[in-house]
Write a structure and sequence with these properties.
heterodimer, A: alpha/beta, Transcription Regulator spoIIAA, two-stranded parallel ribbon, globular, B: Four Helix Bundle (Hemerythrin (Met), subunit A), 5 domains, 6-stranded mixed sheet, 5-stranded mixed sheet, about 45% helix, STAS_dom (chain A), MlaB-like_STAS (chain A), MlaB_ABC_Transporter (chain A), STAS domain-containing protein (chain A), His_kinase_dom (chain B)
Chain lengths: ~100, ~650
């Protein structure tokens, strides 16, 4: 991945965000850590599983530790539902209200 | 990285569940007619496995609905309440509702709708009505508690094994109110993370009158893949009434899921077949034989010696025999009993006859007759149309039947059997038969015929297959559905089959559907036209004749007719139709194959017949594009391609040309 010059990175999560796809997301997220500001876009997530949510939790921690600014650009209803079912909304710093 | 996802099991789950629903429906109908207690058990089992499956595969709405149905059934099973019409009606509606949900699940739509929510409430109310009291129920099951604390720590490999904690938690949520606390203490750093391994754990508080067994069932599949402790919740809250609780919590989950829009996963829906073990074993045996034969021939190749020619011939004969058996066995895999289609009719007949106030006895014969899966899937709708029509228009009201000196109960008979190389499905009723006068009047009005005086009964019957000829307005005063018989015929013809009708006033009507055994292989005659080869399906062939020039007449407008068995029939010269060069032009030099479809005969003029052969049908549309008059292609022994003549299509083309 490129140098530290990139100021903002945007990671769009795929519609199918499950264990078979988390490898790609993992690489993307690691790349995004090079930037100081990171925007996660979960608007189009349709299916999500524990593996993907766990990855996001780990990523959140890592970002915090490295003092990156992390923001959610949007959270789809399936993503929100899954996170709240697993008790991870706080750890993921999801916006408090479910989007319409 | 493992690619295992639970979605790959959805299809099997859908199929099994739909079969379960069929069984449930059949048992309910049998119960309606006074069946025994064993039926209740089989209904319960079906509901239970759908509930379990839907929760496992992430369909909480479905699980919630079946949960309610199961509670009600449980009371019946335990003898706590007697089965009555209202319960059967409710359960039949549940079956319908679940079918709808499966439909939506396959299309990736939200499962719950107003109907299902409504039904769930009704089931809960029905189940609650006769429950002695909430406390009693809890007391009756010692293992039940007002709540549980579940400590759930998946092993690292659980995710890769296809088990998703999310699904398990959703399943728990269907049992009662959850408070979930994720434990992140073992989560590694991003660099150290293998995303397919699970490092999370959960402490879950489950409140509700749930038995420990119910919780264990949720974790049944993963008990070797996680650390699990289940302890009763100490602080006992007053237990809510089970009916209310059961409605309230899953509904919350349902609402959440209803907001989700799932992507359609059914775009590449190739379908699947479940095959009996003995069919597979037969195949394996045959392949074994084939290998032996091949080894024998191989040996001959290595030690070539003209004196052993007899052995070679023997080996080749064996090879041919095994190949043919293998082919038959493989085709057999696609063959399924028609009973799966017939099974939907008891319900249809019951509902329809109740609605119309008619009394109908349904006879199903030959349910074990096997049909190609593709044919089977597509024959359902035409059959439903015909059965519906038979009850709606064919069978009379009880008074009318009595007045006509017939049994008040009308009989509707569905029969499937083999005839020649085809499957025949007959739908017959002992109703009033076609109303000849009304049909002729309608046909005259529509301008389909000029006069109805000298029409045979067959010809009158044929009229109802004409496009736009609605039987509803003619044969009964009931508001019919206006089902066009032309659509029924077209559907059947598309399957390579045919529909015929026989009707006798006052005695009833019989529809006869003839279907090919399979669509994948046809028996055909190979005909040479110019330098090319065409396959004419054997089922369509009446006979082939060599004509003298004086038997052929030219008609104005360019067509040709030939005299065959006292009647004139049109000739289609295949070389003209398909533009073949170097074909024989003189009618006396070639042959005319008389073919028939949809009750019409025409003659196909070809150079000569080469021989009979089985043709494995390849789709022309998929590999090239649609060609009028051609239904597909096949590969010949020498590797060249031969086109398969679409006889019905040619006849349609011919009549269009005549009309033009």
């Amino acid at each position: 991945m490129g140098g530290k010059s990139k100021s903002e990175a945007r990671v769009s999560m795929p519609a199918d965000c499950r264990i078979a796809e988390v490898g790609v997301l993992y690489t993307q997220l690691r790349g995004a850590l090079e930037s100081s500001q990171i925007v996660l876009d979960g608007t189009t997530v349709d299916r999500v599983d524990t593996a993907a949510l766990q990855l996001l939790v780990v990523f959140q921690r890592e970002a915090k530790q490295r003092e990156r600014q992390l923001q959610w650009a949007g959270v789809s209803a399936p993503l929100y539902d899954a996170a709240s079912q697993l008790g991870l909304t706080e750890a993921l710093a999801l916006p408090a209200k479910k989007p319409a | 990285m493992s690619n295992i996802s639970i979605a790959q099991f959805h299809k099997v789950f859908f199929e099994e569940s739909l079969e379960g629903l069929d069984a449930m429906e059949a048992a309910l109908l049998a119960l309606d007619e006074g069946g025994d207690a064993e039926l209740v058990h089989s209904i319960f089992r079906a509901a239970h496995s759908i509930k379990g499956g839907s929760a496992t595969f992430g369909f909480p709405d479905m699980a919630a609905l079946t949960h309610e149905a199961e509670s009600l059934l449980d009371q019946v099973r335990d003898g706590r309440r007697a089965i009555d019409k209202s319960i059967i009606e409710l359960m039949l509606r549940t079956v319908d509702c679940l079918r709808g949900m499966f439909d939506r699940a396959q299309n990736g739509q939200p499962l719950a709708d107003a109907d299902s929510e409504n039904l769930k409430q009704q089931l809960a109310v029905a189940a609650g009505n006769n429950v002695p009291a909430a406390a009693n129920k809890a007391a009756a099951k010692p293992a039940a508690s007002s709540g549980w604390i579940i400590q759930f720590r998946p092993h690292a490999g659980m995710l890769a094994g296809g088990n998703d904690p999310l699904r398990l938690l959703r399943e728990l949520a269907a049992l009662g109110q959850l408070v979930v606390e994720a434990q992140l203490d073992r989560v590694p750093t991003l660099d150290a993370l293998d995303p397919s391994e699970c490092h999370l754990g959960w402490r879950i508080e489950l409140t509700g009158a749930v038995s420990q067994d119910a919780i264990k069932t949720v974790f049944e599949w993963v008990e070797d893949e996680c650390d699990l402790t289940i302890e009763p919740l100490v602080a006992v809250a007053p237990p809510p009434a089970p009916a209310v609780e059961a409605v309230a919590t899953p509904a919350a989950g349902a609402g959440a899921a209803a907001g989700t829009t799932r992507a359609a996963a059914s775009s590449n829906d190739a379908g699947s077949v479940r095959v009996a073990i003995d069919k597979i074993d037969g195949l394996i045996d045959l392949v074994g034989e084939l290998v032996i034969t091949q080894a024998m021939l191989d040996q001959f190749r290595e030690e070539f010696d003209p004196s052993r020619l007899a052995m070679l011939q023997h080996g080749l004969a064996q090879l041919a025999r095994h190949t043919r058996s293998l082919q038959e066995s493989v085709m057999g895999i696609r063959m399924l009993p028609i009973g799966s289609v017939f099974n939907r009719f008891p319900r249809l007949v019951r509902d329809l006859s109740q609605k119309l106030g008619k009394q109908v006895k349904l006879d199903l014969v030959g349910e074990h007759t096997e049909l190609d899966k593709t044919v089977l899937e597509k024959i359902g709708d035409p059959l439903v149309h015909l059965v519906r029509n038979a009850i709606d228009h064919g069978l009379e009201m009880p008074e009318k039947r009595r007045a006509a000196g017939k049994n008040e109960v009308g009989t509707l008979r569905l029969e499937a059997f083999h005839r020649g190389g085809s499957i025949v499905v007959e739908i017959s009723d002992d109703g009033a038969g076609l109303n000849r006068d009304a049909i002729i009047a309608k046909a005259l009005q529509k301008g389909l015929i000029k006069s109805g005086d000298d029409l045979s009964d067959e010809a009158v019957g044929e009229l109802i297959f004409q496009p736009g000829f609605s039987t509803a307005a003619v044969t009964t005063d009931l508001s019919g559905r206006g089902v066009g018989m032309d659509v029924v015929r077209r559907n059947v013809v598309d399957l390579g089959g045919n529909v015929a009708i026989k009707s006798r006033a006052g005695q009833g009507t019989t529809f006869t559907i003839t279907l090919p055994l399979t669509l994948a292989i046809i028996d055909g005659l190979r005909a040479a036209v110019g330098g090319e080869c065409y396959i004419v399906p054997l089922v369509s062939i009446v006979e082939s004749v060599q004509l003298r020039a004086d038997a052929v007449r030219s008609v104005t407008g360019g067509g040709e007719l030939f005299r065959f068995r006292g009647e004139y029939r049109p000739i289609v010269r295949l070389h003209q139709q398909f533009g073949c060069a170097n074909a024989r032009q003189n009618i006396e030099d070639g042959l005319v194959i008389v073919v028939e479809a949809d009750g019409t005969q025409i003659g196909l003029f070809v150079d000569e017949l080469v021989g009979q052969q089985q043709a494995v049908v390849k789709s022309l549309e998929a590999n090239y594009r649609r060609v009028d008059g051609i239904s597909g292609a096949t590969i010949l022994a020498d590797g060249s391609v031969a086109l398969i003549v679409d006889v019905a299509g040619l006849i349609r083309l011919q009549s269009r040309r005549k009309a033009a």
